[in-house]
Design brief:
The complex is a heterodimer. By secondary structure, chain A is of the alpha+beta class. Chain A has ten helices and nine strands. In chain A, strands 1, 2, 3, 4, 5, 6, 7, 8 and 9 form a nine-stranded mixed β-sheet that branches.
């Protein structure tokens, strides 16, 4: 499948937006870890804003940042959200409450527990009726989302916004499913080339194992290896470098996803 | 879209284990709902529970996938020669050319609910808790992929109650993009305390069996089950008049997390999308299997959306009075019900609906009708405003 990357964003520890992160990911500036800073989601009505936790804020933030310089009306863009665990804080609070005698599950907490909560708030924020899906592919959620977004983009001949995000669970779930950092990234994919494209992206699956692309910085490699959305970092790094190259992502238990990035300039 | 053949399908729920039992229950308008006795739940409601005796543990190499949700998936896979059909497809296309795209809303979260009760003094979860094989949403796809010995692409759609309808859209796109030659779609959702207490807190649970479109409807009955469909290209269309997937429409409400758009704007967009995708008009649809959850707001909004698009001539019904609301698995259950209706040439009536809401304007079927339909629509709408409509038809 061949698609075109039209916009990018990233947020994570030490990755404060695409503008600030591109030189770091390209290897031109040092990576300095820092707490994830999320801007307020001003597009959400205040009542809804109060109901959202870090996962939803992260997803909405990267999605909105990717579309900042895009001329298309945001409410018409189809979206693919992908995450291994969704809003882990909400899930933890529900399981904790269900282990008590009262079993008091608040209505807001329950409707926020759905895996598509981010997509729901995205729709509410932008009053969007566009198609939206929410995927999970465990450690391979980013690759699963990229495959879906590209296929949808080509099938419908319309741009698709991919939003990948993963934040750690609180304890004790974090002990059973340890993640490092809270990372989000968004890519706007188009089906036809245009002068404003950042890169051409060719996606192919291989059912055989292969050598996956790693990050050269140890800190970034730790994020890549320990956060499902961190698995996107080699792709972002290649996009930041702007030189033609192939990136190999691990895909499911045995296979790989090969991404060929080409730059016109 | 290019039509796809449903070359094999299977479904298991409180209505019955496998297609034949499901058809028998539908033909008799028998309901699988009963007072909820799930685990330790103290919730005053009815549920469509699958008999625990049918839920055999997952053992052997795949034992780490053992949880109620995957036991349901395992049960469903073993019916209707589904695994044989997939094995044949595997030989035909190769294991890496067959995708697995499944829907679930709560996966094996019940295992986590139980593990939280067994935390040690330091608050740690027990060592035998296996997150990836149970709780994580991807678990069911990974389990099914391993069991069916498939090595193609896989993912789980988790968009609440539209999950296992939307996977039909994913399948169509993957086949159209040339990524897959065949796809296993479907899903599983199982009873858990999260949904029983969660829907309870939203005051959306009926105390008795749910009564879709009834004037006295008071909410849903949660059900559980699993279903799978093997989809392949319809070129050439096999001679035995198979059921085809003709169209898929997906949309968002953009309105509220747990309440549908009052005018059904998102629902209408999904139905229009499905009609466009199938290249047909409202007049070409012979029956609509409504989402029809039996909440006051869903049924009222869906009635408006359907009436505004189809008028009052197309027969419609919800089958949730029979099965309960399978949440992430209702899409595939109802797609299977539509396939049964097309094959057996009847339109299912609405079990448990006693007094039709007089404000309802669509042509709502209370009793089964003997009629051969050519094209049927199935609606699935979920929390977060996620909507999906499918169109299935019988090859001429």
């Amino acid at each position: 499948m061949r698609v075109f990357v039209q916009a990018i964003s990233v947020l994570g520890p030490g990755l404060a937006g695409w503008g600030a992160s591109a030189p770091i990911l390209a290897g031109d500036a040092p990576y300095v870890t820092a707490d994830l800073a999320l801007p307020p989601i001003t597009v959400l009505p205040p009542a809804e804003r109060r109901r959202t936790g870090i996962s939803v804020k992260l997803a909405l933030s990267v999605g909105l940042q990717a579309l900042e310089a895009v001329a298309m009306p945001r409410d018409t863009i189809a979206t693919v959200f992908t995450s291994s665990g969704g809003d882990g804080q909400v899930i933890h609070e529900i399981c904790q409450s269900l282990a008590t005698a009262e079993r008091d599950v608040s209505p807001t907490r329950f409707h926020n527990s759905v895996h598509n909560a981010s997509a729901g708030y995205w729709g509410i924020a932008l009053r969007s009726h566009a198609a939206s899906t929410s995927l999970c592919g465990y450690d391979w959620s980013f690759a699963a989302g990229l495959l879906e977004a590209a296929a949808q983009c080509l099938a419908d001949r319309k741009p698709v916004l991919l939003v990948s995000y993963d934040a750690p669970y609180p304890e004790p779930l974090n002990g059973a499913r340890p993640l490092v950092g809270a990372i989000g990234t968004a890519l706007l994919l188009g089906c036809d080339p245009s002068s404003s494209d950042i890169a051409e992206l060719e996606i192919a699956l291989d059912a055989m194992p292969g050598e996956v692309t790693r990050m050269t910085s140890d800190e970034l490699e730790t994020l890549r290896a320990n956060n499902p959305t961190g698995r996107a970092l080699p792709v972002l790094s290649a996009l930041a470098k702007g030189r033609n190259r192939e990136v190999i992502l691990e895909y499911l238990d045995v296979g790989t996803m090969k991404l060929k990035l080409s730059f016109a300039r | 879209m290019q039509p796809l053949v449903l070359s094999n399908l299977t479904v298991s729920s409180s209505l019955g284990i496998g297609l034949a039992a499901t058809f028998d229950a539908l033909a008799a308008q028998r309901s699988g709902l009963a007072p909820c006795t799930f685990e330790t739940a103290q919730v005053d409601t009815w549920a469509g529970q699958v008999d625990d005796r049918n839920l055999v543990p997952v053992t052997g190499e795949l034992a780490h996938f053992d949880c109620r949700n995957n036991r349901l998936a395992q049960l469903a896979l073993q019916q209707d020669d589904f695994e044989t059909a997939v094995a044949a497809a595997r030989n035909r296309y190769g294991a890496h050319r067959i995708g697995v795209f499944l829907g679930t809303s709560t996966s094996g979260i019940h295992s986590t609910e139980l593990a939280y009760r067994r935390r040690d003094q330091t608050g740690k979860l027990p060592d035998d808790f296996h997150y990836a094989g149970t709780h994580n949403n991807f678990s069911v796809a990974r389990f099914v992929q391993a069991r069916l010995q498939l090595r193609g692409p896989a993912s789980v759609v988790s968009t609440a109650c539209s999950s296992s309808a939307k996977v039909f859209g994913t399948a169509a796109r993957m086949i159209s993009a040339g990524v897959c030659d065949a796809v296993v779609v479907g899903g599983a959702d199982s009873l858990c305390l999260t949904t029983l207490y969660g829907f309870g807190s939203l005051e959306l649970l009926a105390r008795g069996p749910c009564r879709p479109f009834d004037v006295h409807r008071e909410g849903i009955s949660i059900g559980e089950g699993a279903g799978f469909v093997l989809l392949e290209r319809a070129d050439p269309i096999p001679a035995d008049k198979p059921v085809l997937l003709l169209g898929v429409g997906e949309s968002s409400d953009g309105h509220h997390m747990s309440t549908p758009h009052p005018e059904g704007a998102g629902a209408r967009a999904a139905m229009e999308g499905a009609l466009r995708s199938a290249g047909v008009t409202p007049n070409d649809i012979d029956y609509i299997n409504l989402h029809g959850t039996a909440t006051r707001s869903n049924d009222a909004a869906e009635d408006k959306a359907v009436f505004n698009l189809f008028g009052d001539t197309v027969p419609c019904s919800s089958t949730k009075g029979s099965s309960g609301h399978l949440l992430g698995a209702c899409g595939v259950l109802e797609a299977a019900i539509c396939a049964i209706a097309l094959r057996e040439e009847f339109l299912p009536g609405s079990t448990n609906t006693q007094e039709l809401d007089p404000t309802i304007r669509v042509r709502y079927l209370l009793a089964n009708e003997q009629r051969a339909a050519r094209r049927i629509m199935s609606n699935s709408f979920g929390f977060g405003g996620s909507n999906c409509s499918l169109i299935l038809g019988r090859a001429a």
